[in-house]
Amino acid sequence: MKAAVFSDFDGTITLEDSNDYLTDNYGFGKEERLKVFAGVLNGSKPFRDGFTAMLDSVHKPLDECIERLLAHIKLDPGFVETAEWCAANGVPLVVISSGMKPIIEALIGKLVGAERAKELGIAVIANEVAVDEKTGEWHIVYRDDTPHGHDKAQTIAECKKRFAADKYFYCGDGVSDLTAARECDVLFAREGCDLVPYCDQHEIPYILFNSFTEIKERIAQDLQ
């Protein structure tokens, strides 16, 4: 296998982070969220604690949250063509997210099409959600017990065992991607997002991107 592509979902495959949208509009707001992210970036706050606080501030039923996200969140315009290119060239494409699988699958179902995503072999590895049937209250169920909630470095290591490839690519944008930043041969970081200054500060090489079309072209070039 020549390559495998791993990608964050929110703010990377989508143009806006669904969890940020819920927090900013129906939770404790953008100002408080940015304080949380600042703590994660400077190492004073574990991602898990900050993300839990964000989601706990949202007091709407899960189905209503999903409905509002489906009406608002948009897909990166180059993602589908990149997924199609990966499928045509035998390159696995795995979504590795610190978000919640039911929300991600609902968004993919609308933005890509559930059957089309299945045909393209798009896999999703993410946290789950537990819903209290009596009260309707919900909370995130993390994949692991680490301070990250979902240690993407660990998941990438597991994926590398499953997909033995000559080169690995990771695509990300923000605070949930910090553990993944060093784990692949090539890192794509969305321009203008939190992952970029983090990589600059820690001297982690990366390639800026604004669209998945750029990612597809670079991967195709590297595999020639």
UniProtKB/TrEMBL annotation:
This protein's name: WGS project CCBQ000000000 data, contig 00015
Pfam family, one: HAD
InterPro entries: HAD-like_hydrolase_phosphatase, HAD-like_sf, HAD_hydro_PyrdxlP_Pase-like, HAD_sf
Record-linked NCBIfam families: DKMTPPase-SF, HAD-SF-IB
UniProt organism field: Kluyveromyces dobzhanskii CBS 2104
Keyword Hydrolase found: yes
GO molecular function per UniProt: phosphatase activity
Keywords linked to the UniProt accession: Hydrolase
SUPFAM superfamilies recorded: HAD-like
